[in-house]
Amino acid sequence: MKNSVNQFRKIGIIEGYSYLLLLFVAMPLKYFMDYPIAVKVVGMAHGILFIIFCILLALAWQKARWSLRESTLFFVASLIPFGTFYTDKKVKIYE
Fold first, then answer.
1. Can you tell me the mean pLDDT for 19-39?
2. Is residue 49 part of a domain?
3. Which residues 6+ apart lie within 8 Å of 2 measured at CB?
4. How many domains does the chain have?
5. What is the pLDDT of residues 50-94, one digit of tens each?
6. What secondary structure, in 3-state letters, does the chain show?
7. Is residue 73, in this structure, part of any structural domain at all?
8. Domain boundaries, position 82
9. How confident is the model at residue 95 (pLDDT cuts 50, 70, 90)?
């Protein structure tokens, strides 16, 4: 159980930073500096990390026996900037 929760936390932090990088670096580069490749590269990396995040969320949910409400909250929090860092604090108790 600890291993899947730990992996979920780690990918959550990485995915959270990639989301912030996409929103606050790549998007301004695209729209203000006419540099669209930044969004393509960072967006692709973030998309792959988000898919891995969802897979590890499902595995950690199963192993840690989180409630559906709790797992849904973790997923929804990942859609909000800085939300993944909230999830990290909540998930620490399961390690």
1. 96
2. yes
3. 94, 95
4. 1
5. 999 999 999 999 999 999 999 999 999 999 888 888 888 888 877
6. CHHHHHHHHHHHHHHHHHHHHHHHHHHHHHHHCCCCHHHHHHHHHHHHHHHHHHHHHHHHHHHHCCCHHHHHHHHHHHCCCCHHHHHHHHHHHHC
7. yes
8. 2-90
9. low
